[in-house]
Specification:
mainly beta, SH3 type barrels, five-stranded antiparallel sheet, 5 strands, 0% helix, elongated
Length: 85
Amino acid sequence: MSDIQLGDKVRCKLSGFVGVAVARTEFINGCVQYNVLPKVKKTNEVIEDVSIDEGSLEVISKKTKPKKKKENGGPMRKAISARGY
């Protein structure tokens, strides 16, 4: 088992293809492949993901965890004087 997690930026050692691991496929014979999605081109042309064997991939950078928003405990209650009493 490798240290590749979905969301990691990876590179193919053989072709140099760089992208983000978006899906993992494990076949019945034990072969594991990751679908790697590259960045969108400046012309907004979407490029399809590519399936690459697990052994050919290396992690460039780990997935960054999203920052949690600080919650304030819910909506503010109106003061009794503002309720019309």
